[in-house]
Structures are given as C-alpha cells and as structure tokens.
C-alpha cells in the first residue's frame, strides 16, 4: 500500500501457512486496530480535519470506542494537539506504530481512514454518521456549551448581544483595517472579539471562543476551519481575496457550511480593496486577467493571490454584510 508523499510505505503480508512461523503476539487486544498516517499536510488545520480527523471519525465512530489508533508518521505535538478527539473516538492509547517494538495482535484491522469530501461527511455513505454527529463529538471532546445559536432569555445577559469573532491573520491575507472593522461592528450592536489562531494555539481554548460566537468573519484560509466549532444557526462570513478565487473559497468553506447547519455569506474583495493594486500596474495580468495566472498552475496562483495579498474591506459594503448576518441569526438577536 503506497501512501501519499511524506508518508511511509506499508506492505501487507499474509501469515505463513505454518502458524509457528509467525511472530508471537506480545500484546493481544479485542479492539479493532486502525492504521492511519499523520504525514502529508498535517499541521494546517484544514488538512488536519479534511485529511485525517473527519475521515478517522467516518471509519471509527461505529466501533463505539473499541478501536485503537496505530499512527504512522507520528508527530507527538500533533497527536497531543488533537488528543481529546482521539480519546473521544477510542478507549485505548494512541500507538506510534513506526517506533513500536510490540507484536500486536487484533481480531480485525482497518487500514487507512475513509475520505468523503473536503471538510465533510457524506451521510448517505456513512450510515448514521453526519457532520452534525461529528460536530457533536467535537463539542463533547472540547467541552463546548452551545449546540445552537440561541439567544438568552435574560434581558440583562450580555449574550443578548450577538457576538462577532474576527479571525485575524498576519503575513498574508490580513485585514489592514481590523480595528475599524471592529468599531463598525460594535456600532451595529455586536459584541466583538478578535482571535488569531496558529500552530501554538490551544485548540480547546480557541474552540470555546469560536463556540461563543454567533458570527465569524475571516479571509479565506485555514483559520476558517474553526467554523467547525460554531453553534448551529451561526453565520460564517468568508472574505474572498481578489483574483478569481470564488471556486476555491466556495469548495472549501461554502459547501461544507450547509451540512454543519451554519449560514454562509461571502464578501468579495474588489480591486481597490486589495494591496495587489499597489504592487502591480493597472494593466498587469495579475489585476486585469487573474485567470491567466491560474493557467500557470497552483504555485503561481498561490504565490500571487494567497501569499502576496492583504485586504482593506470598504466599511460601508462590509456593514451591509454584517447587517445581513444579523438578519440570519435566530429570532431574539436584536441590537435594540
């Protein structure tokens, strides 16, 4: 069995006909073994969930905890980061199978998780499993209190004010007027929070922050994967960078939103809202004909439109989007 680049190659061999020729078991287990790899693009939250965690859930949830994960290309920091998820799916310790000296014997083995689609589960293929089930599992794993974006019945409760979470970025695709965006949102009645997740972020702590939000806004990128922790009925606003990236933005976050029972809005960055307009002349193909850059391949597209671009949304246009989000929230989220 050949796994994707940066992952080890495994070979499956049948036992010899003579049972005495097989190595003796040093560990016997009644659980099902589940072999998976955390190589590839892990470390990027979108790929952590799309390539490993959601597929692992699809394959493992039916065992009711009677499954043991044998992880190849094991990274201790990565496994620790998502340990609560593995503990929710399994009653057994995660094994670094590449460096394990035991001869482990199981009644059955699952080799590799089942992938359905980006950031999603095809419920028609997975039996009773769905993204609703996966998100319920996440709430249990990380101790998230809000299953739905229901308003408080107490008129003095600050939670009567809808909370807006701005996903902040540095380096590329950053909001250059983030403070002004927050001030404008507060003038509409939002309780505003700003979060900047990175590889060192405590997943549980950040998940609780996201779960407290009613609306989350951010520029297209891995940080929007945190939509997984939003309560049902919340709103995701994806700010799509300039450069004909609608197909990318919608495939990664718009389409998964419906299965998560999350409302989805887009804010398309225009030419006068991107720093690319300061880097290139007006008649440059980067600005005039983005699809000519797309034709040069993923690396060219990524370098220009994802790595070199920051944004400054028009507050007037963005205000309309924030107001639209308010209308989508459950009845009772008023600003008066």
Task: Give the class from helix and strand content and strand pairing.
Answer: alpha/beta
The first-level CATH class of the largest domain is given as Alpha Beta
Helix-strand sequence: EEHEHHEEEHEHEHEEHEHHHHH
CATH architecture of the largest domain: 3-Layer(aba) Sandwich
CATH superfamily annotation of the largest domain: NAD(P)-binding Rossmann-like Domain
Largest sheet: 5 strands, parallel
Query: Can you give the helix content as a percent range?
Result: 25-40%
Tell me the overall shape. Answer: globular
Describe the structure.
The protein is 33% helix and 15% strand. The chain folds into two domains: 19-130, no CATH class; 158-328, Rossmann fold, CATH 3.40.50.720. It is globular and about 75 Å long. With 336 residues, it is α/β, with parallel strands linked by helices. Helix 3 packs across helix 4 (131-142).
Sequence-ordered SSE layout with sheet pairings:
Elements (H helix, E strand, L loop, with lengths): L26 E3 L2 E6 L7 H16 L6 E6 L3 H6 L1 H7 L5 E2 L7 E3 L2 E3 L19 H12 L20 E5 L10 H10 L3 E5 L7 H9 L3 E5 L15 E6 L5 H14 L3 E6 L7 H4 L5 H4 L1 H5 L3 H10 L7 H14 L8
Parallel strand pairs: 1-5, 2-3, 2-6, 3-4, 7-8, 7-9, 9-10, 10-11
Helix pairs in contact: 3-4, 5-12
